[in-house]
Amino acid sequence: MIFILLFFVASIFYKSLSTTNIFVPDKLIGKNLPDFKAKSFYDKNKFFTKNEIFNEKKYYLLNIWASWCGPCREEHPILIKLSNEDNLEIVGLNFKDKKESALKFLNQNGNPYKKILIDDNGSVSINLGAYGVPETFLINENNLIELKFVGPLKISDHKKILKKINNKNEN
Amino acid sequence: MKTKLFLIIIFNIIFNYNYAFSQNDNLNLHKKIYKNIRCIVCQGQSVDESNSDFAINIKKLILVKLEEGLNEEEIYQFLKSRYGEWIIYKPELNTNTLILWLLPYALFIAGGFYIFIKFIKKKSEN
Known about the structure:
The structure holds 2 protein chains of 2 kinds. Chain A has a single domain (31-170), classed as Glutaredoxin. By secondary structure, chain A is of the alpha/beta class. Helix content of chain A is 39%, strand content 22%. The termini of chain A are far apart. In chain A, helix 4 links the parallel strand 4 and strand 5 (115-119). Chain A contains 6 helices and 7 strands, in the order H-E-E-H-E-H-E-H-E-H-E-E-H. By secondary structure, chain B is mainly α. Chain B has 4 helices and no strands. The longest helix of chain B has 34 residues, at 2-35. The termini of chain B are far apart. The chains are: A alpha/beta, B mainly alpha. The interface between A and B is medium-sized, with 17 and 17 residues.
C-alpha cells in the first residue's frame, strides 16, 4: 500500500517537474481571430474593425509592439525581412505608446507595417488573448490564427512563418 | 404636511441605503472576480494582488464588462475563451480535473472506511 502511494506521489512529481512551467496561452490557435475595433495610428478619429483589416485572401502577421519595448527592437529586423514577402501583410498594433516615440522608432529601424493600429489602454490585446509585448499572430486567409509567438520573433520563428506561407503558395 | 415630509425623508433614506448597498455589492463583485483570476505573467499571484501591466489591463477589462452588464460567470467564460482554463483559480469539473476534484473525497471515504474497519476489529477482539 505504502509503495503504491509512494509510486503515485513520485509519478506526480516527475510529471510536474518534467513539464514546462512557462505558460503560453494557445487557446486561440486554430480559431477565428476575435472581433475587435481599434484606432488608426495615423488618424486617431478613424477606427478599423477586424473585417476591414483582414479582408484579402492572403496571410497576415499581426504584431503587437511598442517603442519602449526592448525585445521589439530585437525582432524588428525579422519583421523587415518578412515585409518583403508577397503573400504576407504585416499589421502592427502599437501598445500603450506615444505616437512621437513610435514614429521615431519606425524612422530609425524601418517600417514593416502596411497598417498600424493603436491599443492605448491594452483592451484590444487582452481581447486577442495576448499578455504582453511583443506578441505576434500569423493569420491565414480564412482569418484563422495559425501560429502565435510570445516574445520576440527568433530566426526559427522566421523559418516557421516562411514555411507556412510558402506551403500555401505551392498548393 | 408632517406626514408628507416624513414620507419624503423615509423614501430618501431607503433609496440612498439601497443605492449604497448595491454599489457595495458591485465593489465586492469586482474584487471577488479579481481574486479568482490568475495573473499569468506573475509568480503565484491573482490579478488582485498584482500591479503588473497584464493585471492592470485585466482589471480594467473586468470593470468594462461589468458595466456592459455581464455577470461573473460570463466574465470567466470570456477570459477562458482567450486564455484557457488556467486563468481561473477554481478549475471546472471535466476529464482533466476529475482526479483533482474527486481525490479528496476518495481519500476522505477511504480514511473513514479504514477507521471503521479498525474500530470493528478492535471491538471484535474485545
